[in-house]
Amino acid sequence: xxxxxxxxxxxxxxxxxxxxxxxxxxxxxxxxxxxxxxxxxxxxxxxxxxxxxxxxxxxxxxxxxxxxxxxxxxxxxxxxxxxxxxxxxxxxxxxxxxxxxxxxxxxxxxxxxxxxxxxxxxxxxxxxxxxxxxxxxxxxxxxxxxxxxxxxxxxxxxxxxxxxxxxxxxxxxxxxxxxxxxxxxxxxxxxxxxxxxxxxxxxxxxxxxxxxxxxxxxxxxxxxxxxxxxxxxxxxxxxxxxxx
Length: 244
Fold this sequence. Notes:
single chain, 26% helix, alpha+beta
């Protein structure tokens, strides 16, 4: 069985190391010569570079582990730092403006009246595996593979609000935008609410949003007072096409 991946964070894959794996297991002992004598000049330790195939193998093992131990994002008591499974009609917007050029935002598509939690995924466009690119120069939005690849104004506002809510965090990509006290930001909640009402809850958005699934780590649980559902913000390990 094959899956088509839209997004894979190789950094997260490499950061997840099984506890049983000792540091020295990445070393390969090479015997020099047929008759090995116990001498430093006749035996050496070679550190082999990590191959791309190793990342794929590790991702597979990590997915198996999370499938067995992870939780679903709609569970009522999920919290920041937890790994969760997600699945649903999810659209994507690429960000090519400040304060987060090169960021990507995935947002779940459901009607406003549905009260179950919605997931919003934030990551780096460099981890995208789909052949999409942001439009420039005021070009009309493109539709490729079910995605809107033009940046909606509210995406930039959401990122800006998250950035202001987390000024004290060390600089560095999306950690600066979505870590720490982002869930305490009224501006962020208001802009999320606007984005859902004007974009993600519309019939057009859902029509173009493919059915995606994956695993992600929660960065914030938001409850905008003007929305009838909570919003789970999370950083994805991977996003792939699924069947409803």
